[in-house]
């Protein structure tokens, strides 16, 4: 926990410095007769954030407020969490190419099979029913088009049918 | 070179379609196969948004198209987000964009790598006008009194308007240049907020579109001083124009539709034809009359020429803004 | 009384069989749309707006009111069941609603939310009926200075000092405020913090993206870790007895609920403020004045009732400036406004005089829609609770699917979905390191309002800071904010002194 606490404080300090540097593109001071400039809010708030996270870092050397707690999950949870994150990232990454529907089917299949260890029956129902429900709820009812990628041509007859 | 020629051809064809209003034979050549995205260069609730949604409704109600037109707001960065999006959609005939004046000003003010000349002009549906408004409690009735009062305030006269760099701030700059006065410009989130701030006394004047301040005027809370148009409006007969008072001030907000570059002639023709029908619909004409919008329809070569000349005009105004007066 | 006669006319039109059917359909559709994280009343209203030009005008208003209320009720559903606030107005509902669901009391929380919403809706519609016209004048008095003071007050009633790790709370508030400045600076017209010119950041970071990220994805990751220790299946169930028990418990909260309703109505009425600050203030005040403030955030039913009464009351209140002044307080009212203009109605001061049929038809449909919404909502609670009993891994997969879709839907940018994944992972880690996430999310919601009104006020006052205290309303709010800010600190000092009667040697 202590190491993690320090690392996160350091990361936040870095982030504040980056924001401060970036905010300086606009005036950060008090503009005469009109109050703070466009960069003032992000700059000074980042400065406070920098100060507070530095204090957190400092504090971790003086006292140990979180002793006994642990930051890193049990060894067997790490691959699971990393796996879910990787799966999520991969799903988002392929949406522009294979479209939302295929991406969702793949996501559900992999998740339910390898993380949930469910039976084929349940996997089959969920992976097939979800895209259908999503299509009718989002596209047909709410008229929110989801990305289709390469699968676009297959939807043209569906559009003709439902719109 | 060939590129330019096809573009010319397309524009010429489009113009001829517009003249032979609603000639169905040409429009049948292409029609959308999926819902059309109607990108709006502004956030929800603004004038541009309201208009786009009105068009969506009329299209649906009058069954002008088989596929629905779906409004999508991309108002980020004064329309920069929408312009970039349209550029990325090069050649996609299922996207059109509802524009306002940030169509010219945003690419001039910020480096976003968009040249509006590359887009396909479809049609200008309406031109919105501007007027100078004051609170009735101020007792100001003429433009001379106004200039007087602003001068007396010594720069602390509060002018409310939309975000800095947007239309209202440009109109304010034009006023300042013409009358040699200076305002404290208070940027706000939208025309409705601006109009209310005037009634509530949080600002001293506005350059609202008549549609935004009309109801307060009818209720006797605000007063239009003069219009920034060439001629008086039918809906506001008693209000003079700056031009007739001897001040050469004119400014308009255009409401048009454009499409990404690289559309085929048939695709362009389809939309121009559709917008022509929309223009002729009774709902649209009634709405425009109520809201004091001018519905000068413009397409083809003329529209592109209009866009480009407006862009130059705005470049001049913006240049004037940068140099300290 | 003239008002009553007008209202009776309104009811006569809104209670025909066709219109009752429309109410039921609208409320049900609204409930499901509102219950989807990422979708809210905006989507519901946008969905039915084009339809309203086809049905008769009175039915059109009723349909809109029904879907508006339905979505407001629905917002609480995803806050409680999944811990993901579907709209910024429902953030405060997650604070106690989610812990209740985790304790197996999801049904009770949902009942509390429904009943509280009903109370809030009803009280505010009554206030609306009686005071609509004079209150519009009050709303006009609200300038940038008052707006700033109010937002600050909302912030302090909620955050205050003490409680969690103060340093970490400060970091999270600042981070949220800084993230809220991303995008275009409206005042200067210049882009800020767009991270190397990524177009996706031009429109800023939306509240929904952050909330779905930290509460949706972050929560899933957190539960994956902890669920291996505790049983995987939630024990949520609902019996008839729970329903009665729930209503009995609600009975003890009249003070909180009526206070929340009145507060919600007034704050919602103010053009720029709206339902989010209202729900936060209501929650914050309920906690401050509670006999057991430490139980808040750990599944106190009052912590669900307080924000829910206020946000529903505020959504009714926000109709007032829209109708009487023509200023929309939220994207939803903006759409409604557009709809009215298309029907040929001109919102503004003249509406109440010239279009009485419309105005009273609308008000009576608000009553009808509110009643229908609470009944349908309670009827659907078993279904919602049942959804929680899905095997844990199925639920997680579904939540992630909802996060992807709900993140994409509002602005239709894949960029936002990427941000959700990023915020999810970051939120998970911050949470593990004991950084409180609620202040982060709230700061992002209130930040833009706060900065904008602060700078507007200063510009119009020529940079004179005393402007804020020279105006009576804003001065009052600022004084209250100062009191609330210091209150936990005073309490803490008080306790410390009480603990140590004799000074330590």
UniProtKB/TrEMBL annotation, chain A:
Keyword set, alphabetical order: Membrane, Transmembrane, Transmembrane helix
Pfam families assigned to the protein according to its UniProt record, in alphabetical order: TctB
Residue span, DUF1468 domain: 7-147
Bilayer-spanning residue ranges: 41-62, 83-112, 118-138
UniProt xrefs under InterPro entries: DUF1468
Name of the protein described by the UniProt record: Tripartite tricarboxylate transporter TctB family protein
TrEMBL record, chain B:
Protein name: Tripartite-type tricarboxylate transporter receptor subunit TctC
Species, as recorded: Rhodovulum steppense
Taxonomy, superkingdom: Bacteria
Alphabetical UniProt keywords: Receptor, Signal
Keyword field contains Signal: yes
UniProt record similarity statement: Belongs to the UPF0065 (bug) family.
Pfam families found in the cross-reference section: TctC (PF03401)
Signal peptide: 1-27
Gene3D superfamilies in alphabetical order: Bordetella uptake gene, domain 1, Periplasmic binding protein-like II
Keyword Signal: yes
UniProtKB/TrEMBL annotation, chain C:
Any Pfam family: TctA
Bilayer-crossing regions: 20-39, 46-69, 75-95, 107-133, 145-163, 170-189, 201-222, 258-280, 325-346, 358-386, 392-410, 417-445, 465-490
Ranges where the DUF112 domain occurs: 20-442
Taxonomy of the source species: Bacteria, Pseudomonadati, Pseudomonadota, Alphaproteobacteria, Rhodobacterales
Domain of life: Bacteria
Keywords: Membrane, Transmembrane, Transmembrane helix
Protein name per the record: Putative tricarboxylic transport membrane protein
Annotated organism of origin: Rhodovulum steppense
């Amino acid at each position: 926990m202590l190491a993690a606490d320090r690392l996160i404080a350091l990361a936040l300090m870095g982030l504040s410095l980056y924001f401060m540097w970036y905010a300086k593109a606009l005036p950060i001071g008090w503009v005469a007769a009109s109050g703070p400039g466009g960069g003032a809010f992000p700059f000074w708030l980042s400065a406070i954030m920098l100060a507070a996270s530095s204090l957190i870092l400092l504090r971790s050397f003086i006292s140990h407020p979180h002793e006994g707690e642990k930051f890193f999950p049990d060894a067997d949870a790490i691959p699971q969490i990393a796996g879910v994150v990787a799966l999520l990232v991969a799903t988002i990454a392929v949406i522009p190419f294979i479209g939302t529907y295929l991406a969702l089917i793949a996501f559900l299949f992999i998740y339910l099979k390898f993380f949930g260890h469910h039976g084929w029956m349940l996997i089959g129902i969920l992976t097939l029913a979800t895209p259908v429900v999503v299509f009718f709820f989002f596209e047909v009812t709410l008229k929110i088009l989801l990305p289709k990628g390469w699968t676009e041509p297959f939807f043209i007859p569906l559009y003709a049918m439902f719109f | 070179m060939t590129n330019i020629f096809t573009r010319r051809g397309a524009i010429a064809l489009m113009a001829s379609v517009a003249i032979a209003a609603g000639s169905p034979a040409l429009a049948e050549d292409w029609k959308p196969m999926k819902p059309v995205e109607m990108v709006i260069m502004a956030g929800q609730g603004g004038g541009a948004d309201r208009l786009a949604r009105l068009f969506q409704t009329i299209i649906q109600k009058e069954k002008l198209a088989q596929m629905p037109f779906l409004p999508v707001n991309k108002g980020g960065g004064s329309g920069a987000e929408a312009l970039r999006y349209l550029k990325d959609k090069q050649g996609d005939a299922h996207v059109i964009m509802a524009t306002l004046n940030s169509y010219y000003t945003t690419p001039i003010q910020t480096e976003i790598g968009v040249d509006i000349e590359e887009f396909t002009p479809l049609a200008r549906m309406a031109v919105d006008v501007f007027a100078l408004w004051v609170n009735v409690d101020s007792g100001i009735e003429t433009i001379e009194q106004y200039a007087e009062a602003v001068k007396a305030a010594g720069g602390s006269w509060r002018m409310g308007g939309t975000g800095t760099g947007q239309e209202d701030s440009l109109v304010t700059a034009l006023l300042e240049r013409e009358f040699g006065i200076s305002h404290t410009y208070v940027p706000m989130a939208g025309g409705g907020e601006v109009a209310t701030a005037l009634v509530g006394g949080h600002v001293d004047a506005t350059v609202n579109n008549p549609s935004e301040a009309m109801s307060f005027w009818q209720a006797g809370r605000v007063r239009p001083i003069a219009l920034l148009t060439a001629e008086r409006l039918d809906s506001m007969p008693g209000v003079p124009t700056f031009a007739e008072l001897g001040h050469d001030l004119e400014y308009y907000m255009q409401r048009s539709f454009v499409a990404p570059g690289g559309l085929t002639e048939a695709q362009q023709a389809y939309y121009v034809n559709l917008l022509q029908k929309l223009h002729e619909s009774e709902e649209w004409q009634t709405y425009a009359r109520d809201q004091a919008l001018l519905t000068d329809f413009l397409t083809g070569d003329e529209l592109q020429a209009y866009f480009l000349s407006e862009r130059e005009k705005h470049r001049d105004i913006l240049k004037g803004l940068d140099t300290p007066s | 009384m003239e008002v009553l006669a007008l209202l009776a006319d309104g009811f006569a039109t809104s209670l025909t069989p066709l219109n009752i059917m429309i109410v039921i359909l609208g409320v049900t559709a609204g409930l499901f749309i509102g219950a989807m994280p990422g979708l809210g009343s905006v989507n519901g209203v946008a969905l039915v707006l084009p339809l309203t030009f086809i049905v008769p005008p009175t039915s059109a208003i009723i349909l809109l009111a029904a879907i508006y209320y339905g979505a407001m009720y629905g917002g609480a559903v995803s806050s409680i069941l999944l811990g993901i606030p579907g709209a910024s107005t429902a953030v405060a509902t997650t604070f106690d609603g989610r812990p209740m669901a985790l304790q197996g009391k999801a049904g009770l929380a949902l009942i509390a939310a429904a009943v509280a919403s009903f109370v809030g809706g009803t009280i505010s519609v009554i206030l609306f009926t009686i005071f609509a016209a004079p209150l519009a004048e009050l709303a006009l008095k609200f300038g940038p200075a008052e707006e700033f003071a109010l937002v600050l007050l909302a912030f302090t009633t909620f955050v205050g000092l003490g409680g969690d790790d103060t340093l970490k709370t400060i970091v999270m508030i600042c981070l949220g405020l800084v993230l809220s400045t991303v995008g275009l600076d409206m005042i200067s017209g210049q882009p800020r913090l767009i991270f190397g010119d990524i177009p996706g950041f031009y429109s800023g970071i939306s509240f929904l993206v952050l909330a779905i990220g930290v509460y949706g994805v972050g929560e899933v990751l957190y539960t994956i870790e902890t669920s291996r220790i505790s049983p995987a299946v939630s024990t949520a169930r609902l019996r008839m007895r729970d329903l009665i028990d729930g209503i009995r418990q609600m009975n003890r909260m009249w003070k909180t609920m009526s206070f929340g309703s009145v507060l919600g109505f007034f704050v919602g009425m103010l053009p720029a403020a709206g339902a989010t600050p209202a729900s936060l203030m209501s929650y914050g005040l309920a906690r401050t004045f509670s006999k057991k403030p430490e139980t808040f955030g750990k599944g106190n039913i009052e912590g669900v009732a307080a924000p829910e009464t206020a946000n529903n009351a505020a959504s009714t209140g926000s109709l007032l400036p829209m109708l009487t002044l023509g200023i929309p307080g939220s994207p939803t009212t903006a759409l409604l406004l557009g709809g009215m203009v298309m029907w040929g109605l001109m919102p503004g001061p003249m509406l109440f005089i010239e279009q009485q049929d419309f105005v009273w038809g609308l008000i009576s449909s608000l009553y009808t829609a509110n009643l229908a919404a609470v009944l349908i909502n309670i009827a659907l609670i078993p279904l919602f609770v049942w959804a929680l009993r899905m095997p844990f891994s199925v639920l997680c997969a579904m939540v992630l699917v909802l996060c992807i879709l709900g993140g994409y839907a509002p602005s239709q940018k894949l960029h936002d979905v990427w941000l959700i994944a990023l915020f999810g992972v970051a939120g998970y880690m911050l949470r593990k390191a004991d950084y409180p996430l609620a202040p982060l999310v709230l700061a992002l919601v209130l930040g833009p309002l706060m900065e904008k009104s602060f700078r507007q006020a200063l510009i119009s006052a020529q940079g004179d800071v005393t402007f804020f205290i020279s105006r009576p309303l804003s001065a009052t709010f600022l004084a209250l904010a100062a009191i609330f800010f210091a209150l936990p600190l005073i309490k803490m000092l008080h306790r410390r002194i009480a603990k140590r009667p004799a000074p330590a040697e």
